[in-house]
Design brief:
The mean pLDDT is 94. By secondary structure, the chain is an alpha/beta fold. It has a single domain, classed as Vaccinia Virus protein VP39 (Rossmann fold, 3-Layer(aba) Sandwich). It has a 7-stranded mixed sheet with strand order 3-2-1-4-5-7-6. The N and C termini lie far apart (33 Å). Helix 2 packs parallel to helix 3. It has 6 helices and 7 strands, in the order H-H-E-H-E-H-E-E-H-E-H-E-E. InterPro entries: Methyltransf_25, SAM-dependent_MTases_sf. It is an enzyme of class 2 (transferase). One of its GO terms (molecular function) is methyltransferase activity. Keywords: Methyltransferase, Transferase. This is Class I SAM-dependent methyltransferase.
Length: 195
């Protein structure tokens, strides 16, 4: 199914890129391709009993799609108020809206709810912010130890090098997505870690 068809089915509007508030720390809004989300949704990693946290949720595509596909609960956080408003607007019409919530907040200041056990990243911010976010994730884990999985789509070498040094993280698996796009880009994958 192509991008617009999924948007239509889910009754949301998430297409298009937005660079308006991007800087060296916070990257542009660019939705994860639905073909990649289908791979993740069909992988069996995320289930009905999970609560997914989506960092840099943008207009909410990941949240609406995965809560529709897997029946999980989802929390999207977004710092850009204008884009956050689009996510809230989508929630008014989306078919999986009752399982999705959005919060407008800076990622590094967000304290994770203890029910969060799955976390999704599509390069939302710089390594500097990721380090602070990982400290928040670890805090939540130590507050209530639980199995937590982190999904990194299209990770940079910088992200990967850092993640391999985080003591509490264990590499679990990788979902290869290179066949979905032309060019055989090695970054076209979802790397899964467990805390």
């Amino acid at each position: 199914m192509i991008e617009n068809e999924w948007d239509k089915l889910l009754k949301i509007h998430t297409t298009g890129r937005d660079d308006s508030n991007a800087d060296q720390y916070r990257y542009p809004y660019e939705p994860t391709p639905y073909s990649v989300l289908e791979r993740l949704g069909n992988s069996g990693w995320i289930r009905k009993e999970n609560t997914l946290l989506d960092y840099g949720c943008g207009k909410g595509r990941v949240d609406f799609f995965l809560s529709y596909q897997t029946r999980c609960r989802s929390i999207g956080i977004e710092y850009n108020e204008r884009i956050y408003a689009k996510a809230v607007e989508n929630k008014e019409t989306a078919i999986s809206a009752e399982r999705v919530n959005f919060i407008v907040v800076n990622a590094e200041q967000f304290s994770l709810p203890v029910e969060v056990d799955c976390i999704y990243f599509f390069n939302p911010f710089s390594l500097e912010i990721l380090r602070k976010v990982m400290a928040r994730i670890r805090e939540s884990y130590y507050e209530k130890p639980r199995r937590m999985q982190l999904y990194f789509y299209y990770p940079s070498e910088e992200y990967m090098a850092y993640l391999m040094t985080v003591e509490e993280l264990t590499f679990l698996d990788e979902i290869d997505c290179r066949d979905l796009f032309s060019g055989d880009n090695p970054r076209e994958r979802i790397v899964i870690f467990e805390l």
